[in-house]
Design brief:
Helix content is 29%, strand content 25%. By secondary structure, it is α+β, with helices and mostly antiparallel strands. It has one domain: Nucleoside Triphosphate Pyrophosphohydrolase (Alpha-Beta Complex), CATH 3.90.79.10.
Amino acid sequence: MNAADALGVVEAFDASDSGLAQKSRELTTGLLLSTPAPFSRDHFTPGHITCTALVLHPTQPLVLFMHHHRLKRWLLPGGHVETGDVSLPAAAAREALEETLVRIDASVEPVLAGIDVHGISPKGSEPYHLHHDLIWCFRALHADIAVTDEAPEVRWAGESEWDGMGIAESIRYSILRACR
């Protein structure tokens, strides 16, 4: 995994249907062109790449969500890229497994469904910084999921439930883009 490969993926992403996605693609392109360590969780200016898993239910029009233990809100599973990750989609799939115990269907090719740059509040010695989040779409192998230390609640949810869960617009756009 390297910045040049990531740059190719980001530049090929069609963000024409969303101003937010266009802005995020431009910011992430700038990060990849100007930063020597874009995948390092210790690189704070202008941030670093993270990967999220948008996991579709195997048989129903539902998406996997987790209630984040620290942020206290419903999100898609995801997190930092680790040195052992062989690709950016692999980082997202690993995070989904760690956080929700979902099994990804390896026969379905992952697709970049969204890019979302968002701020992360200071924590401990980490200053405020940006996560340049690549949102990868997968299909679950089966519907089995479970809670973990990082995700005290996990669930499959359909579009009619998103308002009540407070799902962010950037996540909604990614889901709708992936399902067209």
